[in-house]
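Hi L., both proteins are below.
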Amino acid sequence: MTSDTALLHYGIVRAAGQDIAIAASELVEAVDMPPQLMPMPGASALMAGMFMLRGQLIPVLELQRLMAPPGPALTVADGPAAAVGAGSAGPAAARQVAVVAHGGMRLGLGVDAIAEVLRVLPAAIIPLAGAPGGPFDRWLVADGPGGRALPVLQVAALLERTPGVVPAREPAAAGLMASAGGADGQARPVAAPRRHTLAMLGAQVLAFDFADVPDVRPMPEMRPFFAASGALLGLVAWRGHDVPVADLQRLLDLPAAAPATSAGPRPLLMVLQREGRLLGLQVDALLGMEMAATDAIVPLGAGASLHPECYAGALRTAQHGIAAVLRVDALLAHPLVASFLEGQLSAAARKAPQAGSPTSPSPVQAAGARTTFLVYQAGGGCATPLAEVEEILAYPSPAVRIDAAGSGMCGLVECKGRPLEVFDLRTLLGLPEAEATPQARVLVVRRGERLRGFLVDSLVSLVTADAAAQIGRDPAAGGDGRAGGSGLGRMLVVGQGAGATTCRQVDLGRFMGH
């Protein structure tokens, strides 16, 4: 496994349809493009103007013009939209300024959007022969389906050696000391600022510590799995890991957003990472990055949230109003998320070789005996050890009904010359009832001399798996089949790679008392 310290961090910006990589250490923040820039006397055609950001003038360079020969000169009075290129019709789309800094100099880059954040190995950065020392003398070769190559903007070369570029000089650093105005007149230490990633979810602005967000990208294909609470939406494949994706609004009981339309923008996957644990969040938009000192985050008062442990406080952003600052470690420790992640880590530990072992053990040796599971549908993918199922019957329609039958009971069918109670497994699992189809089957389970049938939607397959394919906690003792009230329970991964699916392990014996 590659250590995070060996990876390089890059922010990806988009200009004129081209994605460009900028080292995250030099990408300070991203803000909305002001509707009007102030003119810069004697500026080259590369410079669009300047604006005031927290008391400092920031010159703005149009990145598109750096990448292509400029057309006829445009004045700053024409506005930032005109400075991008002439001949565009209709209202200009909202744009952003990516602020970069190096060696005491600072510059704003006019871009169309902040696209995503990447972490790559050093070997992914390839020098470009023929243009050494220029602003685009290297390329980033990203992994993923089909791969892609992105030009890397060399901020030092842009600020120091590119004709026509006029950066601003940052004020002289005063260290981390500032006058606190105390009675003794002594300087007080000022908390070092930290970079935060800003995202939009519904009408809410959220902030996360940048170090905890290794990637933001368009939402990939999601594999559904059985999660009765609905706060976990599914699994996505990310850099060789199965990452659960959470609905943050349900996880933290936030106000529900308006339902998305098919014509709306594609949601984004924000990956959170802390100490080997991974969680995906579905967000609507990436707003950019912002530097903030620790003392700029205002703690929330008692009773301000149903989940106070998940909030570091609130932050006043420069362009997006108030943002709620979320604690990634607390999100990962949420009972629903932790019950899933702990199972992932324990499965990984079972697969890992023991210290001092000359060779890695085989999967069967690492995980123990293999079990054959019956995989079926009951409002979602489910699995039960085949040894627990005594018989599988077709479901006669209609079954013999009993007046006022409750607790999910469908009725009576004949099995081995005697009446057999049949219960709808959907109802027992807390799901809506559905009409039985010709594919419906009854799974017969025995406890001592007692038989009981469970109606399922359809059979899927038989799968032989070892313990390494099982993730999540064992269900707590009780008759509801849920894990400590989380609704997740133990899961089974069926298949491998992109074709893998995840289903819930159901212990039908737990329902024999209903």
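That was the first. Here is the second:
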Amino acid sequence: MFRSRLLASALAASALGLGLCVDPSPALAGTAQPQPSAQSEARPEPSLVVTIVVDQLSANLFNQYRSRFTGGLKTLADQGMVSINGYQTHGVTVTCAGHSTVLTGAHPARSGIPANDWIDTTTGKTTYCLAAPQNTLAHGRNTDNGPVGPEQLAASTLGDWLKAVSPQSRVYGVSGKDRGAINLAGHKADGAFWLTDNFGFTTYVEPGQSAQARLAPVAALNARMIDRFTRTPPSWTYSNAACRRLDGQWTIAGQTFDSRVPPADFRLDNSPILDELTIEGAIELLDSRQLGRRGVTDMLGVSLSATDRIGHSYGTQGPEMCEQMLRLDAALGVFLDKLSTIPGGAVVVLTADHGGSDFPERSAVEGYPDAGRVDRALQPRVNAALKARFGLEADPLVSSAGGFVIVDKDHKSLAEPLRSQVLAAAIELLNGEPQVAMAVARDELLAEPIPASDNPEELSLRERLRLSAVAGRSPDILRAWQPGLTGQGRVGGAISSHGSPWDYDRRVPIVFWWPGAEGQERFLPMRTIDIAPTLANLIGVKPDAPIDGRCMDLPQFAKGRCEAK
């Protein structure tokens, strides 16, 4: 078990006991907002930009708990500019792809990150979305996802645009996952840190760099964490009585799942402690690197992974997620209080990389009869038909990155013309399955232009999948299950998931906030790809290449009005 993170839970818990953000009087929903004054229009550029991505925080989940928030999420919801119709516009809604959109302003089709990993059919090997074999890991062990770095990310980020015009600016990312930290930090970052077992915060080391130097910004924190763990092991108990009422017992794949806190298989990675430690890491970077306090604009990306880990392991409608939402709210209250002390002013945006839904066994009981799991026999049935038709020895259809690849026994691409023949037959068979909403060839999608997504609610299913299609990385066949369906589950593993093109996986909160902001809600759709150009306008930088997003007006800033197209 990860000793350094365990110890840090004690400090996180004590920090949360210091107090929460003051509960402001929220603006009444639907009331007219005051026009920005001349004083607010003269507001200088913020000295710190903070991007918070809560992994798997669907708009549904945010709205479900909104009335119960008392800490940081309440501050953001009451004082911030809230888009209640925020969207990840693409169709394969997973962590690496979703994170890649937030600060690039680019759909996955342009960012080059269609999924968390994919099968390279030229080698037969699986490639991680941020694989960088030339690098090493600072903690000295080839763990986690192996050597990583930003090279697979084809688009530049807001941090890259800032560093190009202000090299003295500092750009950092921190997360429970490498793909959260690195996607937000970008190519030219000063550091990207994530939590790893038996060490603390680690990072990647490029050739010629020193692991000690790369870890310097978090070295003191790592030492304190290890010391605390030796004295105070972590634990997860109920902190909110209302959550206890959600206890229940469910049968999943013939196994009994006891939904309660602490879970029977308690692990720090699957608990609220993970986010509390990540926020502690963010505060450490604020202090050790003096972010926002040096007369230039700095950036900090914070990706919080616990909501995703808890959602996969325990679902979204039980006591585990209830505790996570309320503890995350409290931890963010401490963080926003810290940001309020930045003398030059900070601007914060909060969003998510994708949404998610509960495990289907509970959803079906709670009134959603279409909730269910994909037939285990579907893929074997299609493979059997393909093998019989083409005289193949090995299964040609292998799952990969939101679809299927057509491969030989070594997971390499079949030779032409056999590949195209099997591909066409597989698509026909898949589209004949009642659980499949659409199966379409990647190359067919790539031949079509990237669709305009200004109105993400009106994108067709095919257009959503097109926004996820990347040459050489996306599978040969992109597929979408019917709404409400998810893959197979296993108690002790993942029992619920995401990744679909349906709105419960695409809709996410998007909130802009700064100390002293006045609450405002916008009902028209906003996309995560609009975040980077909006922030770029606030700090006076420009993208270095075409992007898919557009700048959105935030009129309480001096540069709140976007430039005319």
